[in-house]
Design a protein that fits this description.
299 residues, 34% helix, Rossmann fold, 6-stranded mixed beta sheet, Alpha-Beta Plaits
């Protein structure tokens, strides 16, 4: 439903996206993740037809047509990272304006306003809205047409709890209806809940594509348990090293890297070594560390 074929985009001397080849299937929800400046928003805007490729192509639909063609716009509904509307218009005015542009039936106005949970503020001026309410109004506009492709740029960044609930419902419903959802996110929890697959962009390049389980496993492997001890042990006890070869000592802590599954055995080995434990903490793998590793793997 969305096909990037050797997509490349330059802005002057800066290459925002380099040689991206990726297929997002009908009914699939895919999360684009990566550090700031990795090319996520550029990729999404190319799919929305808002920017043209420097080389390569971006196709929508089956059979595919160029995303930059006006005819392809009917296939897409797009929510940008930051939505703004005229302060003097009411929420209802905004929805009505976009409803008329998209040729959507009149009854959809009340439907999407209810969906956005504006709590009676639909007839108030947008200038009185909070940031979360404005973002929810953006969601209302985005769901107006029954477009088969839904594009969302950092949709949860400014959403309040009511907006998050509406957003989760929206994506889950669209996927159940067989629509294609492509979104960017820095919030791994949101992405894990909603995405079938993850595409990782770093410095404009696609460095990994993985399922939800594959990403969770990769991050779990990079987790760390820190065991605070009554006194520095000097060296890692042999019983601990037998079950956790990567363990090391740092001041008064025994640091045990690895997935959660190895932690009970490592902790038991610490106890058997007759070392007094004063406390422990566990940290899951960090996305920024994972990104740096992927960059190293791809060079």
């Amino acid at each position: 439903m969305i096909t990037f074929s050797r997509f490349r985009k330059r802005f002057g001397p800066h290459v925002a996206v380099e040689d991206l080849t990726l297929l997002i299937r009908r009914g699939e929800s895919l999360a684009l993740i990566g550090p700031n400046g990795s090319g996520k928003s550029t990729t999404l805007k190319a799919a929305a037809g808002l920017i043209r490729p420097t080389s390569g192509e971006v196709l929508l639909g089956e059979p595919g047509e160029q995303a930059s063609r006006p005819s392809a716009r009917n296939l897409v509904s797009f929510l940008p990272q930051r939505v703004t509307f005229p302060d003097t218009l009411t929420g209802r005015d905004v929805v009505e304006f976009y409803r008329s542009l998209r040729g959507v039936p009149l009854e959809r106005t009340d439907e999407v306003l209810r969906f956005a949970s504006l709590n009676g503020a639909a007839d108030r001026a947008v200038g009185t809205y909070s940031g979360g309410m404005t973002q929810r109004l953006g969601l209302a506009v985005a769901v107006l047409p029954a477009a088969p492709v839904f594009l969302l740029d950092e949709p949860t960044a400014a959403l309040d709890p009511d907006g998050l609930a509406a957003f989760y419902l929206l994506v889950e419903r669209h996927a159940a209806e067989g629509r294609t959802v492509l979104f960017t996110s820095h919030q791994l929890g949101d992405a894990e809940r909603l995405a079938d697959r993850f595409a990782v962009l770093v410095a404009g390049r696609l460095v990994a594509v993985m399922t939800q389980r594959e990403l969770r496993d990769r991050l779990a492997e990079r987790g760390v348990m820190r065991v605070r001890l009554a006194a520095p042990p000097g060296t890692v006890p042999e019983k601990v090293r037998a079950v956790a070869p990567g363990a090391y000592v740092e001041l008064d802590e025994l640091v045990i890297p690895g997935p959660p599954s190895m932690r009970p055995a490592a902790l038991e080995a610490v106890r058997q070594s007759a070392i007094e434990i004063r406390g422990l903490t566990a940290e899951e793998g960090r996305l920024d560390t994972f990104y740096r590793e992927l960059v190293g793997d791809s060079t």
